[in-house]
């Protein structure tokens, strides 16, 4: 077995159960004979290690994903403020009080908590969650951008 296999076997995302004790992995559709269980997330998470990339490249990948996470987080909070203040106060309801704007921001905070809880217990595998986050980001950002560009004020 390669070292990466043993490393990921310890996480539980990859399991090898040698049912016939021959030392050979049998990966087949029949559950009675199949000796390998692969979690879908391993295809995304283990690729740098499987490709034998040096540690500094893996570090760059991790740093890039962390930066994109923080960027998404700050963009989301910026979007909360734009939607709460600019769109709501200037376009939708100019007479809204600061208390109403605060309520809107609280609603967005609750929405972000729901997104955070999906991160803690993801509803799907890594690629699904990434696609869902990109879709939801475009769902909220696109109307704000279009309304901002084509506003007559």
Please explain how this structure is put together.
With 153 residues, the chain is mainly alpha-helical. It has two domains: 3-49, no CATH class; 54-149. It is built from six helices and two strands. The chain has helices at residues 3-9, 42-45, 47-50, 55-92, 98-120, 126-149, and strands at residues 14-16, 36-38. A two-stranded antiparallel sheet has the order 1-2. Helix 4 runs parallel beside helix 6 (126-149).
Helical content class: 55-70%
Q: How many helices?
A: 6
Give the number of DSSP strands: 2
Low-confidence regions: none
Strand order in the largest sheet:
1-2
Q: Mean pLDDT, nearest integer? A: 74
How many structural domains are formed by the residues?
2
Q: What shape does the CA trace take?
A: elongated
Order of helices and strands: HEEHHHHH
């Amino acid at each position: 077995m390669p070292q990466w296999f043993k490393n990921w076997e310890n996480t539980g995302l990859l399991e090898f159960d040698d049912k016939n004790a021959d030392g050979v992995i049998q990966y087949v559709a029949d559950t009675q004979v199949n000796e390998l269980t692969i979690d879908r997330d391993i295809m995304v998470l283990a690729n740098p290690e499987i490709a034998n990339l040096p540690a500094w490249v893996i570090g760059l990948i991790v740093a890039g994903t962390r930066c994109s996470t923080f960027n998404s987080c700050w963009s989301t909070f910026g979007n909360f403020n734009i939607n709460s203040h600019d769109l709501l106060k200037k376009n939708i309801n100019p007479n809204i009080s600061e208390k109403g704007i605060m309520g809107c921001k609280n609603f967005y905070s609750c929405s972000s908590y729901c997104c955070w809880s999906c991160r803690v217990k993801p509803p799907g595998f890594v690629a699904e969650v990434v696609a869902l986050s990109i879709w939801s980001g475009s769902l909220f950002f696109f109307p704000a951008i279009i309304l901002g560009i084509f506003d007559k004020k």
